[in-house]
């Protein structure tokens, strides 16, 4: 069997949540012939063939970039040429170049569309892009979504409901193993009301993500400014176009005990998760479709504060079970939720224990691969 995954970027040039999903699929199907086709991260680079963690990657030269979209005629040519013997093409949506390839019939094999998020960033061109998207969904043999929330709250998917399959993202074995050790050693055995085994009394609140508009970091800073409980520290891990603007906002709010940690390695990210008492995900837009970072924190037995978006976000960490869910954009509700968790060690322990159990049961790589294999095998059998 041969599988080809297509998207605009991939590790190590560029990554993020979608690249992580691509990598997890590739790793779970090493018994298949595979290739990943993407664009180079710069128009200065020529086409190249390489391997990333043992998987063949074709990187096509881009002509230019428009609306965060690498435009590449070579990409279209390579999709047509290199999927010729593919049994399955997995398109990680959205990338308009793939929709054009689908429109022109420039691919071979069964088509699986991984619906990662909507296309809000193309809203100025939505009247042009929407017909392309509908054509792609019509031709798709299966459409993947990460949670039922994404399916139920995405209007354009409802017409294709019967094609849709929910396959939640997974957490890496590295996070599972290290998280289990941490939870047992530093968290699960800690008695409510005591300082932890590292001797800390300070409450560390953690945000991890790119510093972009839909993450709601401005709301987070304003909410943190409203916390009356002493001894709280806020750490923001990540970088992005709003970094300087957020630093200026922190100064204007006269915030103390705040750290902008910048972009960090996976090892450093795990260290920050270990150090925190709970994670906050204050996203304000459905552009946040799932947020794997919730799973990463939950794997370490950490509660999560998230927002009631019409996406998969509140389905990952559930209000009153593994954390607290608040209204998107509400400074008051977010501040109250942070006060609530910061002041209640027993509740943090309860939510953290639940979070760890949920991740270990539902979000492992083995469970994810099992779901994919069942779906892919049915698709291939139908085509035969």
Structural class: alpha/beta
- How helical, in percent, are the residues? 40-55%
How would you characterize the largest beta sheet?
A: 8 strands, mixed
Termini distance? Answer: 13 Å
SS summary, helix count = 15
Question: What is the 3D form?
Answer: globular
Radius of gyration over alpha carbons? Answer: 21 Å
Strand order of the largest sheet: 3-4-2-1-7-8-9-10
Fraction of residues in β-strands: 15-25%
Q: Mean pLDDT score, rounded?
A: 91
Poorly predicted sequence stretches spanning 5 or more consecutive residues: 192-199
Number of strands: 16
Secondary structure blueprint with pairings:
Layout: E1 2-6, H1 17-28, E2 33-39, E3 48-52, E4 55-60, E5 64-66, E6 69-71, H2 73-82, E7 88-93, H3 96-103, E8 110-115, H4 126-139, E9 142-145, H5 148-152, H6 155-158, E10 164-166, H7 173-187, E11 203-208, H8 217-225, E12 232-237, H9 243-252, E13 258-262, H10 266-275, E14 278-280, H11 292-298, E15 304-307, H12 313-316, E16 323-326, H13 331-342, H14 345-362, H15 365-383
């Amino acid at each position: 069997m041969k599988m080809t995954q297509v998207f605009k970027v991939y590790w190590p040039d560029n990554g993020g949540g979608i690249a992580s999903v691509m990598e997890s699929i590739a790793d779970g199907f090493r018994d298949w012939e595979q290739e990943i086709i993407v664009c180079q991260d710069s128009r200065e680079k020529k086409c190249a063939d390489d391997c990333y963690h043992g998987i063949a990657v074709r990187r096509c030269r881009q002509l230019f970039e428009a609306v965060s979209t690498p435009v590449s005629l070579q990409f279209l040519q390579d999709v047509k040429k290199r999927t010729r013997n593919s049994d399955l093409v997995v398109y990680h949506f959205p990338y308009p170049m793939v929709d054009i390839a689908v429109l022109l019939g420039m691919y071979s094999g069964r088509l699986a569309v991984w619906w990662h998020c909507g296309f809000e960033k193309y809203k100025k061109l939505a009247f042009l892009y929407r017909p392309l998207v509908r054509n792609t969904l019509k031709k798709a043999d299966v459409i993947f979504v990460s949670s039922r929330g994404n399916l139920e709250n995405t209007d354009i998917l409802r017409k294709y409901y019967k094609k849709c399959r929910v396959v939640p993202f997974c957490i890496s074995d590295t996070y599972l193993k290290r998280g289990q050790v941490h939870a047992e050693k530093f968290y699960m055995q800690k008695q409510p009301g005591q300082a932890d085994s590292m001797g800390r009394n300070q409450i560390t609140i953690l945000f991890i993500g790119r510093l972009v508009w839909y993450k709601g970091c401005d709301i987070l800073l304003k909410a943190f400014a409203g916390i009356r409980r002493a001894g709280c520290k806020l750490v923001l891990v990540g970088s992005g176009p709003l970094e300087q603007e957020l630093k200026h906002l922190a100064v204007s709010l006269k915030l103390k005990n705040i750290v902008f940690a910048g972009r960090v390695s996976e090892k450093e990210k795990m260290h920050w998760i270990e150090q925190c008492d709970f994670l906050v995900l204050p996203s304000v837009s459905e552009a946040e479709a799932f947020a794997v970072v919730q799973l990463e924190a939950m794997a370490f037995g950490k509660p999560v504060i998230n927002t009631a978006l019409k996406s998969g976000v509140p389905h990952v960490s559930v209000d009153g079970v593994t954390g607290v869910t608040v209204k998107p954009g509400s400074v008051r509700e977010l501040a109250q939720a942070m006060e609530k968790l910061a002041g209640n060690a027993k509740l943090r322990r309860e939510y953290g224990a639940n979070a760890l159990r949920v991740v270990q049961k539902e979000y492992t790589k083995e469970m994810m691969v099992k779901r994919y294999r069942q779906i892919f095998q049915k698709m291939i059998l139908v085509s035969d």
